[in-house]
Design a protein that fits this description.
Strand 4 and strand 5 form a beta hairpin. The chain is 0% helix and 75% strand. The chain contains no helices and nine strands. The two termini are 28 Å apart. It is elongated, with a radius of gyration of 17 Å. By secondary structure, the protein is mostly beta strands.
């Protein structure tokens, strides 16, 4: 994943629960790589950014023959930001906002490839455009 505001790549882990053919619930945790800025004089500012999301997906296109799905997503975003100045002084904050976006998913024999684009933390000060790609592996039965 990549966030437009922090301008850093990150990693995400998610879980998906299929409610029925059209709806599913998704929870995920994303952690962006820390952003370090050299301020000169041996001082560095490090910003760490994470997000926790609880989304609902509405699958509006499901081609079982090709394995392609397209979905809209909406949900809740909790964003946490912390900064550390090695010359002293740390701060952290979190806020809640909304997610709005869409994605596609392609079923393969080993898992599902997916791509997603969303506006995260809409309504908050830490809103940003997030693009993510990855693989969802089935865990458990069926």
């Amino acid at each position: 994943m990549y966030g437009s505001e922090i301008e850093q790549p990150g990693l995400r882990v998610d879980g998906v629960y299929q409610i029925n053919e059209e709806f599913r619930a998704v929870a995920d945790f994303g952690f962006y790589l820390p952003d370090e800025t050299d301020l000169g004089g041996g001082n560095t500012l490090t910003i760490t950014w994470w997000e926790l999301n609880f989304n609902g997906n509405y699958i509006f296109h499901n081609d079982e023959e090709s394995g392609l799905q397209a979905y809209a997503l909406a949900g809740l975003n909790i964003t946490g930001i912390s900064s550390e100045f090695d010359g002293g002084g740390d701060s952290s904050d979190s806020e809640t906002g909304l997610n709005l976006g869409a994605g596609i998913e392609y079923g393969m024999s080993f898992g599902n490839l997916f791509g997603e684009a969303k506006m995260a933390n809409v309504g908050g000060d830490a809103d940003q455009f997030v693009v993510g790609v990855g693989v969802r592996f089935p865990v458990g039965g069926n």
